Each structure stands twice: as structure tokens, then as C-alpha cells.
Amino acid sequence: KYAKELKRLNNNVFIIAEKRGESKSNCMIEGVPVYYVGDYKKFKFYNRIIAHALAIRKIQKRQRIRFQVIHSFSSAPLLVCRSLFSKLFSRKAIIIHTLKSYSRNKYGQSFYNFLNYADSITVPTKVFLDILIKKKVQKNKIRIIRSHIDTQKFIPLDKEEVRKKYNYNNEKIIFYYGGLYEEKGLEVLADSIQLVQKVFPNVLFIIAPREQISTAQSLAKKIENLNNVIIINENIDVVDYLNLSDVLCLPYKS
To answer: Packing angle between helix 186-199 and helix 217-224, nearest 10 degrees?
Structure first.
């Protein structure tokens, strides 16, 4: 949506993304050209850092253009280097880097000083901004841009109608949707399920992790042995499930 909005405002937009699985080298997605880079299996540093800069060089040559803005996204601050290397081929470009979330990798929580070489850094929360300042990132370069909600997609629906669609009855439903990694706190929710059910015995827990729950074996065993718990491992319509639930539970640890 971000790229489409930039195009609507008459900007020439290209997306450079890391190649995963069977992605093609390049394609068009909703009118925006997408270039997939970094498919060298034995050279991860090239894939994660250098390939993006070389893709910018190639696009500029083919299109006979010079980029004015290079906007990169990551969780790890170190990946701002993708844009910084790109400056070798587009020296006048403004570098904007968005930290969209916290890195799960311990090494990804270092190298904050590299962000000072960007022209602007955006984060989704005031808490994140304060963390960057403590890490010696220049305050005047940081902007808060809240995570967007697509209000054309996330709309109120008739709860009873949506429940009929998925064959749920009149039980109270607590819904979890998200990742399995530790900071998401699903293990905390699992430990609390029986406590909640002692007070509200008819509560139904619906857990829809983004990854197969079998990948977290201890967590899977803990949840699968509980009553009134449904685990959905396939993709779901999140809007429908938010509407049919009574409570959305996001038990983040931090």
C-alpha cells in the first residue's frame, strides 16, 4: 500500500526485496516493479547487505534514472547498511530507514550507531524512540510514524453472522494471533488458560500462530493437552476472527 500510494502521487517507485523460496528475479505486483535479490546460498552477507545496493545500481542503469530517496526497512539496526552501501551508486539520495519492530537476534540488537549515518529514522512508538536515544542515536533524526491500520479492511462485522460462518456457538471466545517466539508471550497465555477456565469454565481459546505450532514442541504439548482450546495452523481471515471473538489477547513480555 505504501508503494501504491507513492505511485499515486506520481513517484517512480521500485521495490527491492530479499529472495525467498521460489520467488522470480523480478515481477510486477499491483503495478509496482519488484526486484528479488540475494539468492547466493553460501554468501549470506552478500544476500543481506550488498545485493540490494547492486540492484539499485542495475535499476538506475536500465531505467536511466537516479534515485532521490532510498527507504529501507528492518528490525536489526545493522541492516541500514543496505542503504548506506547504495549511496555509492546514488550519492545524492536521501536515506530513510524504518525500524519496524525489535530484532529477535541478539546480534541484531547492536550497531545502533550505524543509524546516525542515515538522514532520517522512523519508529512506530515513543518507547522505541527512547530506546534509540539511549543507544546514542541522534534524536533530531528520529520520527515516530505509528503502525497503520487499513480501515477499509478492518471493519466491524455482525458477530453472530461471522460465528455462524465458522460454526461457533455462543461461548465466550479469547483469540490469539501472532508469532511463536518468546517475546510474544504465548507461553504466558498457555500457563494462564487453566486459571481463566476455573473462573469461566465455558471460555473457548482460539490460537492461530503464524508458524506451525509443532515447531515449538514444549509449547505445543502444553496447549494440546488443555480443554476448550482450538489451534488453527492454516492461514485465517484475521478480520473475521477479530469480529467473532470477545477478547483479543496479546500477551507480550515487553
So the answer is: 10
Nearest to 176 by CA among 152, 206, 145: 206
- The type of residue at 224 is E
Q: Quote the pLDDT of residue 20.
A: 67
Three-class SS of residue 104? coil
Of the segments 24-28, 76-80, 219-223, 226-230, which one has the largest average pLDDT value? Answer: 76-80
Eight-class DSSP state of 47: I
67 vs 30: CA distance, rounded Å:
21
- Inter-residue long-range contacts of 164-172, CB under 8 Å, 24+ positions, other chains counted: 165/240, 166/240, 166/244, 168/204, 168/244, 171/202, 171/203, 171/204, 171/228, 172/200, 172/202, 172/203, 172/204, 172/246, 172/247
Q: How far apart are CA 179 and CA 130, in angstroms?
A: 25
- Identify whether the C-beta of residue 213 lies closer than 8 Å to the C-beta of residue 231: yes
Distance, CA of 186 to CA of 152 (rounded, Å) = 29
Q: What is the pLDDT of residue 165?
A: 95
Task: Give pTM, 2 decimals.
Answer: 0.72
Spatial contact of 95 and 70, defined as CB atoms under 8 Å apart:
yes
Proportion of the chain above pLDDT 90, given as a percent: 56
Mean pLDDT within 100-124 = 89
Cβ proximity of 251 and 185 under 8 Å: yes
Q: What is the pLDDT of residues 41-52, one digit of tens each?
A: 666 666 778 889
| For the chain, the helix, strand and coil percentages under 3-state DSSP, each to the nearest 5 | 40, 20, 40
